[in-house]
Design goal:
Oligomer: single chain
Number of domains: 4
CATH architecture of the largest domain: 2-Layer Sandwich
Strand content: 15-25%
Distance between the termini: 104 Å
Strand order of the largest sheet: 21-22-23-20-19-14-15-16-24
CATH class of the largest domain: Alpha Beta
Length: 707
Amino acid sequence: MDAKELRQKEQRLRELLGKVRQATGGGRQSDADRKRRGREAEREVRIADPEDLKRRTRLEADVLKWLKWYLPHVFFDPFQEHNKEMVAAIIKATRHGGDQALAAPRGEGKTTICEGCLIYCVLKGILFFPVLFSATGSDAEESLTTIRAHLEESDRLAADYPEVCGPIRALQSTPQRAKTMLVTGTNQQTGQPFYMAPCSFHWTGRKVIFPKVPGSRCAGAIIATRGLDAAVRGLKVGIHRPDLAVIDDPDTEETARSEDQREKLERRIDRTIAGLAGRGRRLARVMLTTLQNVVCASARYTDPQIKGSWKGKRIRFIVKFPERTDLWDEYVTTRRDAGEDDEFARKAHRFYLANRKKMDRGAKVTNPNSFDGRTLPDGSQMQVSALQRYYDFVADNGEEAALCELQNDPPEESGPIESGITARRIQRQLSGHGRRIVPPGCTLVTQGIDVRKIALHYVVRAWRPDATGFTIHYDVQEVRGTVRGSDEGVEHAIFRALEERRQSMFDDPYTMEDGTPVPIGGTLVDAGWQTDTIYAFCRAAGKGWWPAMGFGKSNGCVRVQFNMPSKDSPERKSGENWFLSYRRKPKVWLACANADHWKGWEHARWLTDPGKPGAMRLWGNSGDGSRLTDDEKRHFSYAKHLTAEIEVEEVIKGILRRHWKQVRDTNHWLDASYLSDVAANMLGISLMARVRRKPEERPSLSQLQRK
């Protein structure tokens, strides 16, 4: 006999008992007794059986499936790996204790996961008193309101958890009824019926206490929320103390900027929250957060070097950046210039759609579904990819904000003294001459080429004898025919791309203002990768083409330092922080350069005021300085490449040391630029006069090339 039949029999017995009392005079009850029974009937709530107990049991075995089924209105996207990590951190803490800190990108559902997991753990009966800590009291109240809303409004929860949702829904926006409510139903643990049992619970304020329904696994369980901007010491309900602390985004603007406020927050987390479990016990804690800067509390808790017991981990929005960052730089510049004009923003959107295949190539994001796919009045989508969302954020909020809130990789705010070079300074340092035009007074044109599997980044410069330089052209030559994930055919593809670049120099030469062609006097090609291919091409190209390698920490060669030869020989000729080394087998001269020196020399050119010897300028026209001109905007990507590495100085163990720091990995035009500088120096361009050796001691470069 099932529970439904038992309840029907119970109802019939009550009706028969009432008739017996009326027939025997027992029905003559006082008016007060009649009213009392009437009031009890009004307070009574019948608890139905779960709609599908097997489904409920099956879903409880997998928290991710449970969340997607019972809370589909918030967990509608597929769970990504970082979402699973956040959920797993909470579940692990309920079973094994300990501390865990995870930093996830802004907008990846940290708060929603906190709220959903606490409901799951309480309904399943594995937590009795979890506490959700938010940065402020208002944030905490909002989270508790959301938790209440899930339990009040979810039809799927109401169907399978009637012992919880039934009494809650019976409140009908009157939380005072919770204190006097009576319930009738079947005990899920024993299968025995209960009648008019009190289930007093609490549904207002800063905590919820679940209905005390007989047989319910979460009878009397508590979920509380608190803001970390107020006292939390002594948090308990009756004899019950918290059994888990979930800390959601603890930093505020004050704690992120003030060392005193940050230390106060850390003391609250490390001492007060940890001690809420009671004497001799330590409360399990899970922190899900996003970094605001390098000195905020979240940065410290997710740094294993600072707080190792928290097992900190930082999750990035972009795991691998796209290969064509130059196109994304153009996208950001176009969108940033929009201001109040949405048409520019849509212009950037159309640019992305037209070049999406190139712009997406090589990129890997943590969550491909993290973008705003709303349809606009013109029928287009707001965003079509997570990658677009990232660069929209960069355009709207700045690169530093994106590094903090999406990448969880905030830049250093203080520390070593940097050279002072900025991308904006480079953008504004223009010559007034057109692209591909050799300015008056220039006696030499050189070129540097950085070689990659998919593209050649090249920079062409015109030089005056006093080392005043003009960047007259830079671009990307695509390498066609390579296979992603394989080096099959890459040698021939790179050789063809270099030949196409060489042929374009003849077909479309650089010219003076009057149209007179000016040939490129020397080209250095980076031979650090696919060395044999570069050797073969430079030998075939003939005069003016040299393979080159840079040595030093700025090139990632920590163990391979640049060492000048002690003296020249027939197979080794030295210059200014470079030397030529003859390679017998391919019969080619290799230019070996001190990368640290020449990158510093490159930056020094941009830090030299225009008009002085040794200054470097770009093609194009500058404005009045109030706003970037179109020419200045075009150089955004190039300028970012040139500032991808910076030289810094700091005191280490009492000694002032200089070293290079990588800011971003898109430095290909920087490498091509310093190679063009080395080529110029090899051909006689020097900022400072220097003593030259006797001609008979040092063969000319043309002689070396012919050897």
